[in-house]
Amino acid sequence: MKPDGWSQDEHRVAVSLNGERPQNSDIWIIDIARNIRSRLTTDPGTDAAPVWSPDGTRIAFEGRRSGKASLRQQLIDGTAADESLREVSGSSTDIDPSSWSADGRFIAYTLSAAFPMTADVWVLPLFGDRKPFPLAQTEFLETSGVFSPDSRWIAYTSNESGQPNVYVQPFLRAGGKYPVSRDGGSHPVWRADGKELFYLSAAATMMAVPINATGQLEGGEPQMLFQPGRLILNRGQAYAVTKDGGRFLVKVALQRSNVAPITVVVNWTAAIQK
Fold first, then answer.
1. What is the pTM of this model?
2. What is d(CA 156, CA 192) in angstroms, rounded to the nearest whole number?
3. So where are the chain's domains?
4. Which CATH class is domain 12-271?
5. Strand order in the sheet with 248-251
6. Of 7-11, 34-38, 84-88, 249-253, which one has max mean pLDDT?
């Protein structure tokens, strides 16, 4: 199970970068070790929210074609045109993928609209009739659904308590949701062994919660890790984590720049007060 944003081998990252024309962005692949980037999509519309497939051969993303948003996938080697997996109507509607299940069978995405403001977590099967189904669909705003490494659980953000907080609920199994964060939380990401869940606090501090999911889900005490800086939280996941939870890839805003830099945080444990 790889963290979204980082490839399976943790040598490459997928990001959405703004183009020279307004309302244009494309998906790019960045080779971190060699500091080389290559363009994956070239459409004049907006391509955003990239998510790697578990085998590292494809990227799922939101693409806007002829004014309509669609959930699409693109082969990394560029040997075929990108493929539409799901199209939605409405000029203010977005369909942002947030996680790909480890078995490659499901993609979780946020279906949202600006007028009126709505946001729900949906799941698209990549087999059979490919009929999507809602995972969290209420009058509140639910976003950022991410599968656990064993695909038995899914974490997401909901503002049902009056502010965004992180919840976990069973996937394809009966059971209620479990609150993970307190006093605000968003953008959950699992560690690769499923024993820890990261999220951003209301103050944009990186937090970690130990998770025991051997039976009924049990969460531990949230712990502060570090302050990433001015994060970019507008589309998709705001950060990714290596399999061991030791390095973080975050999107931060620079002053006097329109470019979103990539920052890798290492040795963050040294900053924690013992």
1. 0.88
2. 17
3. 12-271
4. mainly beta
5. 239-241, 248-251, 262-265
6. 84-88
Tokens found for residue 21: 């024309």
Q: How far apart are CA 236 and CA 14, in angstroms?
A: 12
* Token pair 């209620």: residue: 176
Condensed to tens digits (0 to 9), the pLDDT of residues 42-82 reads 998 899 999 999 999 999 999 998 889 999 999 998 888 89
